[in-house]
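Key idea: predict the complex, not the pieces.
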Amino acid sequence: MGKYIGQAIKRVEDQRFITGKGTYTDDIVLHRMTHAYILRSQLAHARIKSIDTSAAKAAPGVVAVFTGADVQEVNGVPCGWQVNFKSGETMREPKHPLLVHDKVRHVGDSVAVVIAETKAQARDAADLIEVDYEELPVVVESVDALKPGAAKVHDELPDNLVFDWELGDASAADEGLAKAAHVTSMKIRNQRLVPNPIEPRSYIGDYDASRDNYTLYTSSQNPHVIRLLMCAFVLGIPEHKVRVVAKDVGGGFGSKIYHYTEEALVTWASKQIGRPIKWTSERSEAFVTDAHGRDHHTTAQMGFDADGKLTALKVHTDANIGAYLSTFSTAVPTYLYGTLLQGQYTTPAVYVSVNAVFTNTTAVDAYRGAGRPEATYLLERLMDTAAAEMGMDPAELRMKNFIPAFDGVDQPGYQTQVALQYDSGNYEAAMRKALDIIGYDELRKEQEEARKQGRYIGIGFSSYIEACGIAPSAVVGSLGARAGLFESANVRVQPTGMVSVYTGSHSHGQGHDTTFAQVVADHLGIDMSNVEIIHGDTEQVPFGMGTYGSRSLAVGGSAIVGALEKVKEKGAKVAAHLLEASEQDLEFADGSWTVKGTDKSISFGEVALASYVPHNFPEGLEPGIEFNSFYDPANFTYPFGTYIAVVEVDPETGKTTIKRFVAVDDVGNIVNPMIVEGQIHGGLAQGIGQALLEGAVYDESGQLTTGTFLDYAMPRADDLISFEVDGNVTPCPHNPLGAKGAGEAGCIGSTPAIVNAVVDALRPLGVSDLAMPLTPQKVWAAINSAS
Amino acid sequence: MVPTSFDYHRASSVDEAIALMQQYGEDAKILAGGHSLVPAMKLRLATPERLIDLGGIEGLKYINDKGDHIAVGAMATHWMLESSSVVQQKAPALSQAAGAIGDVQVRNRGTIGGALAHSDPAADYPGAVLALNASMVIKGAGGERVVPASEYFVDLWETAVQPGELLVEIRIPTDAANANSCYVKYAQPASRYPYVGVAVAMDKSGGTCSDIRVGFSGVGHSAFRDAGVENALKGQAVNDASAKAAADQATQGKDVLSDWSVSEDYRRAMARVFTKRALLQVGA
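Result:
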């Protein structure tokens, strides 16, 4: 539509980031600021018999020490999504206090906070706090926590069940399985992951007694949501008395969506001591306090008729929720998971039941992909396994079952068996493109040849779909969300024609300063350098919902477009006045209003200036050009794609080497292809990390064995290869940009492709399944026990 | 990540460092590159009252070709060893071990003396200096003594360096075997410490393996030479079959580590696999 959209423009924010000029929360230093250190539980489950803070309070530099007793009257942090039991009973929602007073429920639980003049003094004083614990039995796995007699995480509850939940038609699924010619049954483990954004969480609470108001600086993905939750549900402060600032944030991957206890704690404590308080997580604290991801134990049956057409899918999952309900934890294993079990397939009957379970572990919540990776891993492992069991080619089996192409305009959206209506899709096209790029037929021959030489090469598929651009407020509201999921924008045209855009979306690595500026510049026909994007401050930006679920462009970008339309409407009125023409006779192009069929025109800049110097404006024409827009989408967006991984397994060591990785994504219209490719690359790395390297391991006593980077293996450049990324474009039919979102695709689709490839490599040896991460030792053991 | 408070001394000479060690005894820890000690202090696993920093002693930062041996100052960095042409030619196993440590930033700061004095069972150097038949020059108030690598590694975190003493130099003989040496590492994916680090120095100037030394890092409580492998190959022509037969002797009779991430069985199996690969690398 203009000169910017569709161009791979370098990210304008990167100058600041790569030269170390970003301003992250921990970079902020306030006058008279103090430092907090939180004493955390080293035990997974224990009753606190007594706490003695007297020595800590007397230690050098200490300003205050608070324990659970001091915040007993303060509410806990809330859960933002209500999921009810099958019976209709409300989910169990025990208090998640800012500091515990009765017992600790996981390693890392907050026991006390020490506030001192320096961070070192706070840290030293914390060593002087004496806590007398009575150790209690520990439960770590969801499946164990459901057993009768299991240790109870919350004493006041009857057991560890948060809720049980179901979606789809159970009897139809049973029938579909009963009549199937072949049923593939699998037990699937989707292991727990630690998000590990590069910037640890950091907060500053600053109470100003002179105005009786608060400022919270936070490394958050959604400052307005934090303000709402903290004010209305935790501290009971009027919202207008709290400003929440989240400017530069160094990555989130979901883990910075949630309202954490430490945010409310520094805000509350700042008023108690009358001084600002900074708390910054240490990396080892982040491992045990940032909400984790995944952690499902699942059994599933997938039925096929004699032709290989799907007849039914039936799934049961026990989802570990951790010790407390994190903000969106309840939605992840339900509405972001069960609703995606249709996949790209025409499965006529789908049923899923889920138990969400408390354990003595760190809370689990949305992590890049959030529910959709678990759904995709399940479906795509089942498809490859079924293909092998039925002696079919895995690509062919998928193509036999794909939903036929539909654009959502001439053809209607696709109604799934699990509540969603897909907006538009062309699944076979993505598969065919991926097959072309990889040279599939030739590759199978090479695999055959390699096997004869004793080399183990495998080819793995994954055809994913995700629900992004979350979401229509009416839909999520009906599913239990305690918030709307619209987005806001404010476009402020400055007198000189510069444009300031205040967005409710939040960039913590996504490149909004660039992508949004491209959209604005093209819509107004102005230079990109004349556009400024501002986010992350509740005092500047209209109430917005923030960034997660690949929603920034599809929802936040659409809100900006809505405001730009209003700007153009107003601009036309001003231009008509200045050109002495009627609005109907004007056309807007390339940044100017022109009287049709004449050379009389006026530029956007001239209109802007006249709007703020309205010396001869007629009655009824207001000065200024500034508009808000709130955009609530009509539906989710549904990006999709097919990935193919080629791996080679060293049978001597069990080590997997990725030989090729082809990713064909269809994320709708693309504003900046370089940024989208970057998002895909990052997602692929994370998804491959889960397949091969990552995994949170707890021992029986509830200690996180993989609690540092010495033991928790993050993917690094030399674990990966140069990805072959390509795509198709099936626009989103219901938003003005036609964009679907690209933030999570790579992480959702890549994991099963890799596991399928490794299993495919080893199938001649009799290996049919492997549990993630596919560590060399695990693969080596499977090879040895198979052969 | 805040350490407990400590006093800091920056020594300007080896003698001053030794005098400070004598003065403060067990309260003091030596700081070389700091890449093991400082993280331990930040996690409060180490809480020394005093640090004696060797970073200011330029006289410990050298790699000198002395003809019959290479003399390496204890404060030579991993990067110096990795990039030294003398070491690359006359003791490639040492250069390769240095290059296998951490990342570039770590290799620019970390030192060979610090690593060998720390004697982490998972460190890369120890197996290499054993295979290279190096000797360690240890200095104390009473003067210098030279300890062969075979007597240097005592146990987990324990070496022949006594309280009040300082490792000041590592000497690598420049023999035919060392010139034909290699270090092969199979790394733990998170820490990148070796599951198995195997160094082989082999003299095959006569067409067969006339002399061989094999050292392991990361496999046992401390690094060790493996006579089983050495004896199996000595006097043999090196080929796939002889290399495999010799490698199959690896770690026999040795205590082998296991932890949450790898079993003893897997580590022994990988010791055999990577020993074979190392033997073929220098023997083919």
